[in-house]
Amino acid sequence: MATAGTSIKAPMGGPQPEGTPLAGYAVSVDVGGIEKELAALWRTQSKEKSAALTRACAWNLVVYCSDDGAMTKAKLTADALVHAVPTRTILVLNHPYATSGPELEAWVSANCHVGAGGGKLLCTEEIHIESRAKGSELVPSLLRALVVPDVPTALWWAGPPPDNASAVRVLVSGVDRLIVDSMQAPGGSLSKLAHVGGLLDGLVLVDLNWLRTATLRSLLASMFDPPVGAEALFKMRHMRLEVTEAGLPAAKLMLGWLISRLKWTVSERLPSSSVAGASWRLRSRDDTGLGIDIAIVTGSPRASGLHSMHFDTDDGRRFGFTSREREVVDVVGARGTRELSAGEPPIEQLLVAALGARGRDRLYAVALHRAMELER
Amino acid sequence: MTTAAANPLRQGLAEDRLPEPCTVVIFGASGDLTKRKLVPALYTLMAERLLPATFSVVGFARKAVTDDAFRQEMKEWCGKFARHKPTDELWNQFQKGVYFHTGDYDNPESYKALKVRLDQIDKERGIPGNRVFYISTPPATFPIAVKQLDENGLINKSTEGPFTRVIIEKPFGTDVASARELNAHCLKHLREEQIYRIDHYLGKETVQNLMVFRFANAMFEPLWNNRFVEQVQITGAEALGIEGRGGYFDHAGILRDMVQNHLFQVMALTAMEPPASLNATDLRDEKVKVLKALRPYPEGRFDEFVVRGQYRTGAVGGRRIPNYHEEAGVTAGSTTETYVALKMFIDNWRWAGVPFYLRSGKAMAKKVTEVALIFKDAPHRLFGEKSSTEPNVLSIRIQPDEGISVRFGSKVPGNTLDINPVNMEFRYGTSFGTEPPEAYERLQLDCMLGDQALYTRADEVDASWRFISRIHEEWARSFAKGIPSYEAGTWGPDESDAMLRRANHAWRRL
Q1: What does the pLDDT look like over A14-68, one tens digit per residue?
Q2: 3-state secondary structure of B190
Q3: pLDDT for res B16
Q4: For residue A97, what are the domain limits?
Q5: What's the CATH code of the domain at B253?
Q6: Closest by Cα among B227, B468, B500, B220 to B353
Q7: Mean pLDDT of B100-123
């Protein structure tokens, strides 16, 4: 797939090379006339270009960034995303403590690439808004005016997940999907996210960290397919996970999932045998005790930080995996040790999945809720 | 044996379409289909995490090839044809489950040895004996392979325990008698639920979208009948000639190669009633009703409904195409049709009186497959002579440039009331960005999952052959009449245009 160019915000008022808006350069515009400027941009470019241009939009994607670093990363991801899901992307960056500069600034640009399988030049729109000091109060009204009608809206909170629901509600009313990454939760705590998620009734909460570890859940599940069978799951007596510091939320979500699926209950948190880790005692469905340890390791090839996970059963069997490379894990199961593929998709693919048709994942909601029990 | 559904960790997983661990055995592993489509599709499925972690592919053919040589060859072909190009890491994983087994299709010893090999692979890779046999060999070996598989203990006919499914490539028979014979033979060795008769058109995203378009949108279905539709045109045109397939094609002809299977399936999906559900039985019940409702051609009026042709020298897209008779493998004086056009009626309430025109040909002006519903004129010409004379058209493009377009009349800007036709277009590539999966990805995955909805059932095959065989019989009777020719790179013989002209219709210009 050929890309016509990457979006680079031009300096305010600086000279624009001819025909650059469709090559990804941002054009500074008056905030009150963003829509008008976009329309003018398309009219001009359609006349100038010999090939037909197609504007496409399947989602409004509002990207909320808390700082310049998050904005730079989010923008690169959003630019890659539009190759798979055409979106009108609205990047929002607030500088609440700024003491100079205009309250609101906006730039518009387009990302064009040749569509899948060749053919027409497919273009998506990107709007970049920066607010300073009290300008942030004006952002919600701007967003309300800028979302494309009849198209769903997703809010991607690029950075640590929001810690209060009203921040989300105020920013974009009528948002259909809130996308967060619990991997960035401060201190690896999921409780605030679960609390916010609970208050955002009617809105689909999608956690990129949950999607990131989907292959591992699938891999674990596959270990107990026939002929091994689920019986081994109920004989589990001890579980040990190794995670990086950043991998704690993924580990808790994985445990939350197991707790919910296997109907375990958390009895107590134990003093950890590892300095930086955590341990719990759980009760299984048949009221037998079950110990869980999380140990912190310094590195892992997996983006989620979930490095290894092993179960021991009361009849001496062992199941689990250890990450070896980015896409490969060594699996221990009923048939000895094997090397299997279990990669974690890059962030743009996670976003594609987050905007997928599936919507609310009940399994996640339950896993998040049960993971909170580990934090009590 | 317990099933995967009994595993509490499986419940609710996003990958609810993940098949159970299994082995796909490809008969005809040295053939083009394996290299260009089947293995690249399996690799892509793995790259998209749609295959179980424990999965294997075994190529079976007469050629003596080592596992490593087969793996190396498949890597090259995946590099050329898979949607996901092999990366070292992923390919390394995939190739560990790729094997080659040399054997003769008619030698029981080869099957016994295959069984030993598969049992060994199951043990090594933790596969519980689930197997898909993909028979992609010359048609004459289909019955032999099925019989040998059964007689050598490779088929579990029970509904309990590991599954055995058999995919049979087209053509499923060459006429109604041979199709029935093959069906009966297969049913001696397999249950119908184990037989997957493949028609790769059904795996195409746009063909499936025909159903979505019709049944997920309330605005089109009310127009989808004889009250509003004047005629339906289905085109399956190839720009290529027979390109070295003369030996096969000269025996088959375009009617067998394209119409009996692909275009009839597209027609059935276009014309069928809404199924009660999307399960295999309900969907195929509706398709078969359409095929059974096809009106037989009246005695003595065959030429009013069927036109065939054969291409002669010409050029397609700036490339010279030789006369069909000069193609390698074509017998001297052959009357095999490289073009066919059919006028058909579906005798049911929905479609009574609406002609369905089907055309398919080799060496035509361009490659295009589409379905077009051409609507009746507005009941009153309010705008008189200034009205457009072009009817409304709803066209569904299956390939290339997949999408849907609607043609309607619009006022030409200005101070007069001139009306011109304009097109409103939806294109897959511009709305979704992602490339649709290859048909063989979807179909192989469905088979591993035990979903037969996109495979054809015995009675569908029978009904379509019944109609097609009558045409072949008539052609055999009128052999002396010869066959009209058309210049390569055009839209077929004049007789085809004349057939539509008689009803005051014309083929769409594509």
Answers
A1: 344 444 445 556 777 777 778 777 777 777 766 665 555 677 788 899 999 988 8
A2: coil
A3: 58
A4: 8-151
A5: 3.30.360.10
A6: B227
A7: 95
Among A219, A341, A350, which would you mutate to test the B interface (most chain B Cβ atoms within 10 Å of its Cβ)?
A341
Give CA torsion, residues A171, A175, A181, A185, to 10 deg. 40
- B14, B433, B436 member nearest A358 (Cβ): B14
> Residue A94 is encoded by which pair of tokens?
């607030």
The residues in A 330-359 lying below 8 A from B, measured between CB atoms, are 331, 333-335, 338-343, 352, 358
Is B236 within the bounds of a domain? yes
Report the domain count for chain B.
Answer: 2
**Are B330 and B372 in the same domain?**
yes
| CATH number, domain with residue A243 | 3.30.360
Q: Do B431 and A58 touch (CB under 8 A)?
A: yes
CA angle B220, B223, B227 (to 5 degrees): 170
Mean pLDDT check: name the lowest of A204-208, B298-302, B432-436, B477-481: B432-436
Chain B residues bordering chain A (beta-carbon distance below 8 Å) = 1-4, 6-15, 18, 20-21, 46, 49, 52-54, 89-90, 92-94, 96, 123, 125-126, 128, 400-401, 427-436
pLDDT exceeds cutoff 90 at B29: yes
- Distance from the Cα of B193 to chain A's closest Cα (Å) equals 21
pLDDT at A273: 61
Residue B427 belongs to a domain: no
Using a CB–CB cutoff of 8 Å, tell me whether A219 touches chain B. Answer: yes
Mean pLDDT is lowest, of B121-125, B335-339, B427-431, B446-450, for B427-431
Which of B1, B11, B429 has its CB closest to that of A116? B429
What's the CATH code of the domain at B35?
Answer: 3.40.50.720
Kindly list the residues from chain A whose CB atom is less than 8 angstroms away from the CB atom of residue B127: none
Q: At what angle do helices B264-271 and B205-215 cross, to 10 degrees?
A: 10
- Number of structural domains chain A divides into: 2
Q: Which domain holds residue B102?
A: 4-169
The token pair that represents A128 in the structure block: 């970049």
| CA of B53 vs chain A CAs: smallest distance (Å) | 6
pLDDT at residue B317, as a whole number: 79
Question: Does residue A115 belong to any structural domain of this protein?
Answer: yes
Determine the average pLDDT of the residues in B197-209. Answer: 89
End-to-end Cα, chain B, rounded Å: 55
Contact state of A222 with B96 under an 8 Å Cβ cutoff:
no
- Give the C-alpha separation, A344 to A339, whole Å: 16
Same domain, B250 and B115: no
Of residues A117, A220, A222, nearest to B435 (C-beta) = A117
Last residue of a domain, one of B144, B169, B194: B169
Beta-strand (E) ranges in chain A? 8-9, 25-29, 53-55, 59-65, 87-95, 104-114, 121-132, 153-158, 177-180, 204-207, 236-243, 265-270, 278-283, 289-296, 306-313, 318-323, 328-333, 336-341
Scanning every residue of chain A, which has its alpha carbon at the shortest distance from the alpha carbon of B434?
A84
User: Assign residue B296 a region: left if phi > 0, alpha if psi is -120 to 50, beta otherwise?
Assistant: beta
- Closest CA in chain B for residue A210: B14
List, by residue number, the catalytic residues of B: 262
State whether A342 and B53 contact (CB < 8 Å). yes
How large is the average pLDDT for residues A291-296?
A: 88
The answer to whether A54 and A120 are in contact (CB under 8 A) is: yes
Report d(CA B19, CA B442) in Å as an integer. Answer: 12
Q: Does one domain contain both A88 and A13?
A: yes
Q: List CB contacts (< 8 A) between B120 and chain A.
A: none
- Report the DSSP pairing between strands A306-313 and A104-114: unpaired
